[in-house]
Amino acid sequence: MAPGWPGSCRLAAAEWVYFTSGSSGLPKGARHTDATLLAAAYGWTLQGRVGELDGDVGSMAFPVAHVGGIIYVMSQLISGFPIVLAEAFDAATIDLFRQHAVTMSGGSTVFYTALLAAQRQFAATSAGPRLLPSLRVLKGGGAPCPPAVYWAVRDEMGVTVAHDYGMTEVPMICVASPRDTDEQLANSDGKPIPGNEARIVDGSAVLPTGAEGEIQVRGAAVCHGYADPSLDADAFTADGWFRTGDRGHLRPDGHVEVTGRTKDLIIRKGEKIAPLELETLLIQHPAVAEVAVVGLPDDERGERVCAVLVTRSDASAPSLDEVSSFLRAKGLMPQKLPEQVEIVSELPRTGLGKVAKLALRDKFSAS
Question: pTM, whole model, 2 decimals?
Answer without folding.
Answer: 0.80
